[in-house]
Amino acid sequence: MISIGLAGWGDHDLIYGTGVTAQNRLKQYSKYFSVVEVDSSYYAIHKPELFERWAADTGESFAFVIKAYQGMTGHTREKYSDEDMESMFGAFKASIQPVVEAGKCKAVLFQYPPWFDCTRENVNLLRVAKERMEDLPLALEFRHQSWFSEELRDKTLAFMSREGWIHSVCDEPQVHPGSVPTVLVPTHDEVTIVRFHGRNTSGWMSSGAPNWREVRYLYRYSDEELREWRDMLLELEEGSRHICVIFNNNSGGDAAANARRLMELLGQETRPLPPRQLDLF
Fold first, then answer.
1. Residues 217/198, Cβ–Cβ less than 8 Å
2. Is 21 within the bounds of a domain?
3. Domain of 256?
4. What does the DSSP 8-state code read for residue 30?
5. What pTM value is reported for the model?
6. 276 located within any domain
7. How far apart, in Å, do the first and last CA atoms of the chain sit?
């Protein structure tokens, strides 16, 4: 099964039309897509009541990929004590519990920063993170090419499979060392995640610029690129029961359109878009 969705649900005007309030956007979103990535959880550990509402706003078969809080993946560059880390992980697990109990947590996504390279120390950090998250389904995404170097690629994949990590396969600009190649290898029988970050090479290297987040994901996939990915997704499906595809290229509002087109290429039904108010001036 291949499910296609977007990173977040607040900014995809294509599927909202007019008159949809911010509070009702997830309900509207779930009419068009069956999976969503919660990226706001990267910036803050939410109250459980928020996840409870999101679970209630979506249908029984809807799935969430929840991004791990940035302190848990080292993005803050702060040195936390073991006690602080235990508390942080515990608070995060408690926050997402309503989605877990609803059976809608497809995976918690641990995306590590570009400076998180393949070292013995970092491999141990992955083991500790897995232990702290207990039996929750965890997806792993790297941003440093050393994990998939010619020397370490097979060892990385074997480690992920052995430890029970879901592979988050990336489509992103190839800017070394702060990016990873597309590696079409499932490491989990049940789930594989594919995240489309776009191919804006210059934007990918814009960290530090005032608008770097907007520039980085400014990209629209061509029909030819999506057709190539259709075939690759079908290949991935042979090794993993459920493929969750997330489009993260929405700086220019392209994610929803690209996702819908990929659904069409896979022969999946797409709901008609809502009417839009005409721009008369």
1. yes
2. yes
3. 2-265
4. T
5. 0.93
6. no
7. 45
Quote the pLDDT of residue 73: 97
pLDDT (tens digit per residue) in 216-275: 788 999 999 999 999 999 999 999 999 999 999 998 889 999 999 999 999 999 999 887
Give the span between the Cα atoms of 71 and 261, in whole angstroms: 35
Query: Which string of b and e fits 198-216 if b means at least 16 CB within 10 Å?
Result: bbbeebbbbeeeeeeeebb
| Contacts with 34 (C-beta within 8 Å, 6 or more apart), sequence order | 3, 4, 5, 61, 62, 63
Side chain identity at residue 253, one-letter code: G
Element (H, E) at 244: strand 242-247
CB-CB contact of 82 with 41 (8 Å): no
How many domains in the chain?
A: 1
Question: How many residues does this entry show for the chain?
Answer: 281
**For residue 274, cis peptide bond before it (omega within 30 degrees of 0):** no
Residue in this structure with the two tokens 């592979």, named with its chain if needed:
167
- DSSP H or E segment with residue 35: strand 35-38
The answer as to whether 281 is a domain residue is: no
82: exposed, middle or buried (Cβ count in 10 Å: 0-12, 13-18, 19+): exposed
Q: What CATH number should be reported for the domain holding residue 78?
A: 3.20.20.410
Furthest-apart CA atoms within the chain: distance in Å: 61
For residue 135, how many other CB atoms are within 10 A of its CB? 7
